[in-house]
Structure formats: structure tokens, C-alpha cells
């Protein structure tokens, strides 16, 4: 959800305030909002192509438009790659990520 919200924000579909609010809600519910493990961004990007939401070699993403409202749509590959690469490259245990501090502008 954190990565999807950031992809949507970077694509102009979801507000920065929405990303921050979502992450605060997830954290308040005890859900993770960051990652610190061995998985590499390239592994995720490769695995995405095998997802059941791929149609005609295009990934259909579930993207938030606002809290509680989503749309299923393809997303620009460069935005997806940049956000996923940033998210998995800059993980620190117990990091406070409630906004887009780690994403590329």
C-alpha cells in the first residue's frame, strides 16, 4: 500500500497529504510502512511481470485516488521503477516514513 500510494502520488493521482495520512493510519494499526530486508528492487520488478494483474504485458495497478477509493490502471514504467527502486534501496530499520521522504521527486 505504501509503494502503491507513492506511485499514485508521483503520477499525480493521489495527494502527498493522502500518502502521509495513509501511512500514519497503517502505522497506528501496527502495520509496516517500511522495509528492511534482503529483497532487491530488481527482484520485485521482475516478479511483478508474473502477477495475475498483468494483461497484454502491462501491469494493471490498484491505485488510490483518495483514501477509500481506488482505480485499476496501468502506470508509467519509469514511475514504478523509480518508486520501487527508492523504496527498497533506502530502507532502514525503524525508519519514520510518514511521507515521501524516501521517494524521488
Secondary structure topology:
Elements: H1 2-10, H2 16-28, H3 41-48, E1 54-55, E2 58-66, E3 69-74, H4 77-89
Antiparallel strand pairs: 1-2, 2-3
Describe this structure in words.
With 105 residues, this protein is of the alpha+beta class. The chain is 41% helix and 16% strand. The chain has a three-stranded antiparallel sheet with strand order 1-2-3, covered by helices on one side. Helix 1 (2-10) packs antiparallel against helix 2, helix 1 (2-10) crosses helix 4 and helix 3 (41-48) runs antiparallel to helix 4.
Which key terms come to mind for this protein?
4 helices, alpha+beta, globular, single chain, Dehydroquinate synthase-like, alpha domain, 105 residues, three-stranded antiparallel beta sheet
CATH topology type: Dehydroquinate synthase-like, alpha domain
Count of DSSP helices? 4
Order of helices and strands: HHHEEEH
β content, as a range?
15-25%
Question: What's the main sheet like?
Answer: 3 strands, antiparallel
Query: Which radius of gyration do the C-alpha atoms yield?
Result: 13 Å
Number of domains: 1
Mean pLDDT over the residues: 83
Q: Which ranges are low-confidence, i.e. pLDDT below 50, for 5 or more consecutive residues?
A: 91-105
Short note summarizing the structure:
By secondary structure, the chain is of the alpha+beta class.
Amino acid at each position: 500500500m505504501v509503494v502503491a500510494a507513492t506511485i499514485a502520488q508521483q503520477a499525480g493521482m493521489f495527494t502527498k497529504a493522502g500518502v502521509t495520512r495513509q501511512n500514519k493510519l497503517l502505522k497506528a494499526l501496527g502495520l509496516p510502512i517500511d522495509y528492511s530486508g534482503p529483497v532487491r528492487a530488481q527482484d520485485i520488478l521482475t516478479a511483478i511481470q508474473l502477477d495475475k494483474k498483468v494483461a497484454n504485458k502491462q501491469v494493471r495497478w490498484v491505485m488510490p485516488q483518495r483514501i477509500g477509493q481506488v482505480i485499476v490502471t496501468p502506470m508509467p514504467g519509469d514511475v514504478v521503477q523509480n518508486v520501487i527502486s527508492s523504496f527498497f534501496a533506502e530502507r532502514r530499520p525503524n525508519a519514520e516514513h510518514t511521507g515521501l521522504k524516501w521517494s524521488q521527486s
